[in-house]
Amino acid sequence: MTMIRTTLLAISALLVLALPAQAADDGIAAPTLRASVTVTSDVVRVGDLIDNAGSAALIPVYRSPDLGTTGALPVAQVLSVLRAKQVIGVMTGDIKEVQVTRLARTLASKDLENAVASALERRFGLGDAANLTVTFDRGVSDMRLDASNTGALQAVATRYDSRGGRFDIAFEISNDSNPAPTRLRLTGTAIETVEVAVLTRDIDRSEMLKSSDIAQERRPKSEVTGEPALRERAIGMQLRRPMRAGTPIRVADIAKPEFVTRDQSVTVIYQVPGIYLTTRGKAIDGGAEGDTVSVLNLQTKRTLTGIVTGRGQVTVQGASQSAPMAPAVEQTSSLKREEAPAPVDTAALLRNLVQAPASPAQIAEAQIPQARVSQAQAK
Predict the structure, then answer these.
(1) Which of 93, 8, 23, 102 lies closest to 56, judged by CA?
(2) Could you read off the pLDDT of 338-357 as tens digits, one per residue?
(3) What are the phi and psi torsion angles at 18 (to 5°)?
(4) Within-domain flag for 376
């Protein structure tokens, strides 16, 4: 009796599997092979490969390709596997092979670095996430997860050692197919860095920094004590001390180039409206362009104060305006026509102008020789 029942069940199963071939004659849609298949699970089922698979749709036939990859199956091989599963009468058309793609969610290494930096941002004495350089222990590249993992990376446990910069962070990702989230654990180092100008060659104190002397790099913040100097700010400046190639430059390390150095022989310029005089002097102070320095007039041995206006050049400014002229009055000169005015003492004028800033009246007096005048009597 048991044997008869088993035989009847086997016959019934064969009849069910043979229905697709009969269905084609009765107007029912026949099973049709697909040229391209997309799967999300780790197995490929009959229903993934053919349309109208009926009750055989859930039968597994292949192992899926790796996450995010595509594999090709020859049609002859597919039909052979289907026949082994008692699936027959499949329409193939002109298909030569079946492309099977397994969907995946790809987490790029940059995304993982950003997730770690965000978890550490403004914690454990660190700064902004944009200034954190993250390095993973095993050189993590792109990571692929099942496509069902659609949630965001959420840090649930964060550990950080500020002395060595090591981190150990656990993340969770919610998914659509399982109430339990997917867990990831990432370890490595995270170092806070800053943008800083770095010397490309050894530079002496007296040299002016050129564009080719400086590169912009990111360096660990611990290597730059003080405010870092940016490349644009350092170009054209002068170092306060000799520095070697590869050394990061701080704002405190640079200054405007000195156009005048202490004890240097300089040109002293005395300039007022209408007059431009020069003499030699000796710098008592050093300074950059625009700095106020003291110089010694080598002729008068007087100390003057001026502004550095060029290399080896100090300008002493006089009055910006001439003295107002007195109202014109009718004058007669006591000099005879043939008498010439006394010559101007140029040396005395130079001494007067350079030894100290003169008043407008003194300047006018130095320019015009004195002449005795008397006011004409009114008629």
Answers:
(1) 23
(2) 444 444 444 554 454 444 44
(3) -85, -5
(4) no
